[in-house]
Predict the 3D structure of the following.
Amino acid sequence: MTQDHDHGHGSGCAHQQGGTQDRGRHQGGAHGHGGAGGHAHGDSHGHTHMDFGQMLPLLVQEAELFMPAYVQAADWLREQRPDPGLIVDAGSGPGVISGLFAEKFPGARIVAVDGAEPLLEEARARAGRLGFADRFSTIEAELSEGIGDLEYPADLLWASRSLHHVGDQRAALTGFVRSLAPGGTLALLEGGLPTRFLPRDTGIGRPGLEARIDAVHDEWFTRMRTELPGSVAETEDWPALLEAVGLRHTATRTFLLDLPAPVSDEARAFAVTALTRRREGLAEGLDAEDLATLDRLLDPADKASAHHRSDVFVLTAMTVYVGVKPE
């Protein structure tokens, strides 16, 4: 979803979690709209305070459903950075993408960094279930304050829709660069396109419902950004920002997630969850007719609802910007 995955929690301190093997890094995401590898946000909220611990089921649901696009992104990054020793997932959320990196880079240590301890707890449990706990560790840290104490600099730092939850994005990027090894790679997932689930004309209410929801979400997102602590207005020219903090912008690529109708039960459940969160979070910005349409689309007893209709799909695009630290 445009859910990006969002962050902005934590104690403000940075400490490493895990056993004696936890010598690596932490990663963070995601949002979020993540997470999916990051965190889910905006379209899921009409307010600017988010409890990512409570959002854990949605974050996992989204990241797992969006996995085909993340796999493409990881394969692309592996072509550019084939053998990193340490990978940091900054704004990792529940660690779904950390697990993907552990699979794609079997020789790397993985560090998940996030400000929400409940999400890091899930990330550690996931690492145990998937069998890479011996090369996985976590750091609880707010990205606005850096990514905590790494044992050694990161060769690859992944930040998925987590940066936009930091008031001063340029300062956070500067912190990311400090944590990179010379020649290290920063992969920043921001922007792309909003996730769509329905045709323009659903046969209920006025056509163009999701476009109007997106417009309300954009207003919410702007408000969210301005209300963040230490908020600094920044043009969202990510390549220019990478260059401004001392990296060499080397590549940009957009990855498509296309789950056409008829969708799986998992994709349908995600669509219902996402539309429900939009209904709840953005209600103040939508008119009565659109709210009534959403109510029908979310009513399990209505045959025209997203629970039953055959034209539900999941379509989105995620853009990754890559910068390399000079040797």
Confidence is low (pLDDT under 50) at residues 1-49. The CA atoms of residues 56 and 221 lie 21 Å apart.
